[in-house]
Design goal:
The chain is of the alpha/beta class. It contains 19 helices and twelve strands. Strand 2 (about 35-40), helix 2 (about 50-65) and strand 3 (about 70-75) form a beta-alpha-beta unit. Helix 5 (about 185-195) packs across helix 6.
């Protein structure tokens, strides 16, 4: 059985957003699910708009999401000699021909066709045919090279997403495969690349559907069967428009900076066009185990940041606390707090992570342990009045006398203080939270206090 080989082939003309990266996730997952090979190819023939900076962002985004490639990155601009070699062979076989029609002549042809309510297309003026006399070659004009598209019949493929697609060859004109300066065009380069890289499955956005019949013809002209195609529906933004930089899409790496977990983003993106029954939350390993091309959705997926946050929250609950501590330490550093990703930070993550959707939120909670906090005036007025101060002072004394600074000992000190002042737990716990943590809602107050340094917790109680 032929080994599966897939590819992701972005153009480095700007940052990569979630809509783009889904076109990397699915071929990556399919290659991993089938023990195949995942190839990264950079389609950088748009020299004016391509940049190394954009390539770096693509690679960084894929690295963060764990979408490692097995081969590449290959750069089309470094393969020009190969393309020109194939073009030369095709020209010698009569598969391509020079066309001297100028841009002005093409424009005039299109205007005539549109006036006659015909589909604008090249009319084959320079296509050699038996018994046909070609126009005289104009002086000083460099021709384009055009591919001889088969006449009559149709091109058909079974798309793994869209089903059977059939395009009449009469709908297709002769594709330009090389510009006047000899530079090969996109649709030609893609085919040569896919042949040379032995790509078996092309999984890409459905904006490429119109390119596919032309590419299939070039494959067959070169004596190769085309790969299996799966054209993915568009990813829409929250306003229902195609996700794009123009419509407010963010770079993939911004989600990292905003505190999303890579596995959560992979989980969310996978469900934005593929499903495994009703499973909403799954690990990367489960995705690889389950992924196939038979359960790709046919309708556009709509991005929903609230849903992404929910998925992220579920992954945070499942996340190993030591791993989470490393990520939170990075977020704390962003707000000027140096914290070791040690056992204490892991314990803090374990205590607070269930109430957070991102590592940014978690770092905000945990900041109370690393820098001084002050209650708001509203919280101070509501919870730290004269009536509760004696109880807080008594609790501080009990805490100071504790031989062991742990949850059980702190819980007993709280109970003894409640009994002394005939209070219910909320009447004491909320003021303690406000005094020590600067906020009225936290996890269990004894667990929260146990992770503070004993001295600083007592000092915060006493300064009320």
């Amino acid at each position: 059985m032929t080994q599966v080989r897939t590819r992701f082939a972005p153009s480095p003309t700007g940052f990569i957003h979630l809509g783009n990266i889904r076109s990397a996730l699915y071929p990556w997952a399919f290659a991993r699910a089938t023990k195949g090979v995942f190839v990264l190819r950079i389609e950088d023939t748009d020299v004016e708009r391509s940049s190394q900076e954009a390539v770096d962002v693509i690679v960084e985004g894929m690295r963060w999401l764990g979408l490692g490639h097995d081969e590449g990155p290959f750069y089309q601009m470094q393969r020009m000699d190969r393309y020109k070699e194939v073009l030369s062979n095709m020209r010698s076989q009569g598969l391509v021909y020079p066309c001297y029609m100028s841009t002005a002549e093409l424009d005039a042809l299109r205007e005539r066709q549109m006036a006659a309510k015909e589909k604008p297309r090249y009319d084959g003026t320079w296509r050699p045919e038996d018994g046909k006399v070609l126009p005289p070659v104009p002086e000083g004009v460099l021709p384009v090279l055009r591919f001889r598209t088969p006449k009559g019949g149709s091109v058909v493929w079974d798309d793994k997403v869209k089903g059977r697609i059939e395009i009449s060859n009469d709908e297709l004109d002769d594709l330009v495969v090389a510009r006047p300066d000899g530079t090969p065009t996109y649709n030609f380069c893609v085919v040569v690349d896919d042949i040379d890289m032995k790509i078996t499955h092309v999984i890409r956005g459905d904006d490429h559907v119109n390119n596919t019949p032309r590419q299939i013809h070039v494959f067959r002209a070169l004596g190769q069967e085309p790969p299996v195609y799966a054209h993915l529906p568009t990813v829409l933004n929250e306003q229902g428009e195609k996700m794009s930089k123009r419509h407010g899409a963010k770079p993939v790496t911004q989600y990292r900076d905003e505190g999303y977990l890579a596995d959560a983003v992979v989980n969310y993106l996978a469900r934005l066009g593929w499903s495994h029954g009703d499973d909403e939350i799954f690990s990367r390993e489960q995705l690889v185990e389950w992924f196939d091309l038979d359960h790709l959705g046919r309708s556009a997926g709509q991005f929903d940041e609230a849903k992404l946050r929910w998925v992220n929250a579920q992954h945070m609950k499942r996340c190993d606390n030591a791993e989470l501590a490393g990520l939170v330490a990075e977020q704390l550093a962003r707000i000027g707090i140096t914290a070791e990703a040690d056992g204490r930070l892991a314990a803090l993550c374990a205590l607070f992570k269930d109430r957070c959707s991102t590592t940014v939120e978690l770092a905000d909670w945990l900041s109370i342990y690393f820098r001084d906090v002050q209650p708001t005036d509203e919280d101070r007025a509501a919870h730290l009045g004269d009536a509760v101060r004696p109880a807080l002072a008594s609790l501080a004394q009990r805490l100071e006398r504790l031989a062991a600074w742990d949850t059980a000992s702190i819980a007993q000190a709280l109970k003894d203080t409640l009994a002394e002042f005939k209070l219910k737990m909320p009447q004491l716990a909320v003021p303690v939270r406000v005094a020590v943590c600067g906020r009225a809602q936290t996890p269990s107050v004894d667990a929260v206090l146990s992770l503070f340094d004993k001295k600083s917790a007592i000092e915060r109680l006493r300064r009320v």
